[in-house]
Structures are given as structure tokens and as C-alpha cells.
Design brief:
- The chain is of the alpha/beta class.
- Helix content is 29%, strand content 16%.
- Strands 7-8-9-6-5-4-3-2-1-10-11-12 form a twelve-stranded mixed beta sheet.
- Helix 2 (71-82) runs parallel beside helix 3 (102-110) and helix 4 runs parallel beside helix 6 (164-177).
- It starts with a helix and ends with a helix.
- The structure holds S-adenosylmethionine and iron/sulfur cluster (2 copies).
- One iron/sulfur cluster binds next to loops.
Length: 356
């Protein structure tokens, strides 16, 4: 960011913790709207597309506990982000429900007035234990990941941990706690779970929940991704349309990654997140912060910026806001649009570390 651009931001920004959002734009003109925070990089599953067990050999794979941001620090950081435009926050991981005291953190974040959408992405296994408390703490929405209803396929994709039954029980617990319109994230791997997608979509049709079919992505560096592992969203769309006719829903939010389609018979919607075959970098208004406070401007980044010293230090809030504004202003990522042209980069950061 040029120094004059930075001083413009400083002139117009108000120092109050919940000051109205200031329109900071990145180098490609994109504002910042959404923040994904990984609250923990550990997980109780070992999905091969994310955290393959064979990539976790040896010590030091996961962040040491003392390097994790505390609840105080996360709240401070989120408040600062709201000053430069963030109004949607999603807690993720790793598996966020494994973080000790997560309910208390949710309660604190739910109390930040500038946030109008507080959500959580989980593999669902621990929802029977936590769904009620999360709802009471002010969590707005839940997304649950489920790749297959078939137990053998589920186990193949989860590294042999957990079960589809447990995830379905988690979804039921979320319903009972009062969460409606739950999003069901399904990563589609060609030759692994693609044949079971109609079963999955059929299972949730008419329930009010929305299955979102996600193209397997080349995030991280240990999932052995190849282009041949991707089932294009368009292929799935055609299959679904043949069984239950669908039509596109007009986009409500330009920055939402999922393209929404509705069943013509009125039995709900299905979403497609096709970041490989239909990239959407031009509308990407999302920042990520890992559990140790590293800021990432793109899901496919090879490096980030450690915010922990500035969040943990004695600096005033305005300095943190300025720093974040500077980071966002310098952003020019558009990996999915230039996939394959980037040449040899350093290994990409794993998704479970960065926050999916
Ligand atoms: N553990 C939680 C869960 O699975 O929902 C939250 C973290 S997980 C990294 C967030 C989302 O990223 C999940 O829906 C998961 O399916 C998705 N994901 C992980 N690796 C992926 C990949 N290689 N391609 C596409 N989506 C992926
Ligand atoms: Fe864990 Fe979620 Fe990654 Fe699966 S996708 S290994 S549940 S963090
Ligand atoms: Fe955003 Fe990076 Fe994904 Fe493009 S590749 S949509 S810039 S996270």
C-alpha cells in the first residue's frame, strides 16, 4: 500500500472499537467483509483431502497450546477487523468444537454489535454435546461437513474416524437446539464419493437444510490432489437436474462462494462451490486468521503475517486497526483464477492450519 493511501485510511477511520466500517479495498478493488478464524488446528477426523494421517508423522505438526490466541486476543482482533469492514465471522479449524471454552468465546463474539452473522463450520461429531450451549451463547448459524451417507465411503474419506451416523446425530442435535437451514458441506472426490451424491442430496431435500457440493481443491501440500480428482460442479448440476429439475437462484450476496440452485418442485436448494472450474476470486472479500494469529489473505497462500505480537502487546487498538488495513490494502491474491500458471511456489499452508 502506498503511504498516501494509508494516510487516507487513517484520516477517515474512527478509533472507537465498534466504529462504522471503513471501506478499505485491496489492490484489486475488493472490500473486506468476512473473517474466518481457526480456533484450533487439531481434529478428531483425518480426512484425506485435508489432514491425511500419513502427513502427520513426527513432532511439531500441530501448534503448541501456548501459541494459540486466547479468547481475549481473538475478541480484540475481531473488534479491530470490524473497523475495516468485517461483519461476518466464521469459526473453523481444524475442528473448532475441540477448543476448550469455545462456548464462552462464541458468547463474547456474539456480543460484538458490528457482527451481524456469526457462524461455525464443524464436522458435527461433537454437536450432540455442544449444540444447545452454542445456540444459547448466540451462535447464529452452523455448517456441518458430511461427505457420504454410506459408512464405508465415509470412513474412506475421514481416515477411518467417526461415522456418518454420528454426523447425522450431530445435525439432529443442531436442529433440536433451534438451528435452522443448516448448510451441509460435501467435498466431492471423483471416484470416491461422487456416485453417492444423489443419495445425499435426496436425503436433505425437503428438510430446509442445504447441501453444498464443493469441488476437491488443491489446498495445502499433502492431499495429493490432481485435476483428475475433481468432479466439476457442472457435471453434478446436470445429474441432479435430471433427477430433480433445478433452476438458478438470483445471487443475494456477490461474495458468497456458493452458487445457489432451487428445486423446481419447491423442496429447497442445493449449492455449488466450484472454485476449481468456476473461480470467484473477483468477489473474494474474505480474510483468514489461524489459531496462532497468522493472517492469510488467500486460502492458497504459502505464507502469512503473524499478528500475535501486535495483538498480544501493549499497542493501542488503533495501531492494530491500521496494521490490518495495511495488510488488506496490499492484497492481490487470485490463485484460483491463475491456477497452474503460478510456477513453483513454496508449499501451500494446510487448510486445517489456516482455517477452512
Ligand atoms: N473440521 C471442520 C469441518 O470439517 O467442517 C471445519 C474445518 S474444515 C477444514 C472446513 C471445510 O473445508 C470442510 O467443509 C471441509 O470439507 C473443507 N475442505 C477441507 N479440505 C478441502 C479440500 N481439499 N477441498 C475442498 N474442501 C475442503
Ligand atoms: Fe478435520 Fe475438517 Fe479437516 Fe476433516 S475437513 S480433517 S474434519 S478439519
Ligand atoms: Fe479468494 Fe484466494 Fe480463493 Fe481466490 S483463490 S477466491 S482470492 S481465497
Amino acid at each position: 500500500m502506498s503511504s498516501s493511501a494509508h494516510s487516507d485510511i487513517l484520516r477517515i477511520r474512527k478509533p472507537a472499537p465498534e466504529a462504522p466500517a471503513i471501506a478499505v479495498r485491496d489492490r484489486l478493488g475488493r472490500p473486506l467483509r468476512d473473517l474466518r478464524i481457526s480456533v484450533l488446528d487439531r481434529c478428531n477426523l483425518r480426512c484425506g483431502y485435508c489432514m491425511p494421517a500419513d502427513s502427520l508423522q513426527g513432532q511439531g505438526v500441530f501448534l503448541p497450546r501456548e501459541s494459540l490466541l486466547t479468547d481475549d486476543e481473538i475478541e480484540r482482533l475481531v473488534r479491530a477487523f470490524t473497523c475495516i469492514g468485517v461483519h461476518k465471522v466464521r469459526l473453523t479449524g481444524g475442528e473448532p468444537l475441540l477448543r476448550r471454552g469455545l462456548v464462552g468465546l462464541v458468547r463474547r463474539l456474539a456480543g460484538i454489535g458490528a457482527i451481524d452473522d456469526l457462524a461455525l463450520t464443524t464436522n458435527g461429531i461433537l454437536l450432540p454435546r455442544f449444540a444447545g450451549e452454542l445456540k444459547a451463547a448466540g451462535l447464529g448459524r452452523i455448517t456441518v461437513s458430511l461427505d457420504s451417507l454410506d459408512e464405508a465411503t465415509f470412513a474412506r474419506m475421514s481416515g477411518g474416524r467417526g461415522s456418518a451416523r454420528e454426523v447425522l446425530d450431530g445435525i439432529k442435535a443442531a436442529e433440536d437446539a433451534g438451528f435452522g437451514a443448516i448448510k451441509i458441506n460435501t467435498v466431492v472426490q471423483q471416484g470416491v464419493n461422487d456416485k453417492g451424491i444423489l443419495d445425499l442430496v435426496g436425503h436433505f431435500r425437503g428438510t430446509g437444510h442445504v447441501v453444498r457440493l464443493i469441488e476437491f481443491m488443491d489446498v495445502g501440500h499433502s492431499n495429493h490432489w490432481t485435476p483428475g480428482d475433481v468432479t466439476p460442479g457442472a457435471t453434478l448440476r446436470e445429474q441432479i437436474h435430471r433427477r430433480w429439475p433445478i433452476e438458478p437462484v438470483e445471487r443475494q450476496s456477490a461474495s458468497a462462494p456458493a452458487r445457489r440452485w432451487r428445486f423446481k418442485d419447491g423442496r429447497g436448494e442445493v449449492g455449488f462451490i466450484s472454485s476449481v472450474t468456476e473461480p470467484f476470486c473477483g468477489q473474494c472479500t474474505r480474510a483468514r486468521v489461524a489459531a496462532d494469529g497468522t493472517f492469510y489473505s488467500c486460502l492458497f497462500a504459502s505464507r502469512g503475517t503473524l499478528l500475535r505480537p501486535i495483538v498480544r502487546g501493549e499497542h493501542d487498538s488503533q495501531r492494530l486497526v491500521d496494521y490490518l488495513a495495511g495488510l488488506w490494502s496490499g492484497r492481490e491474491d487470485r490463485y484460483s483464477e491463475i491456477r497452474g500458471q503460478a510456477g513453483d511456489a513454496d508449499p501451500r499452508v494446510e487448510m486445517y492450519r489456516m482455517g477452512g
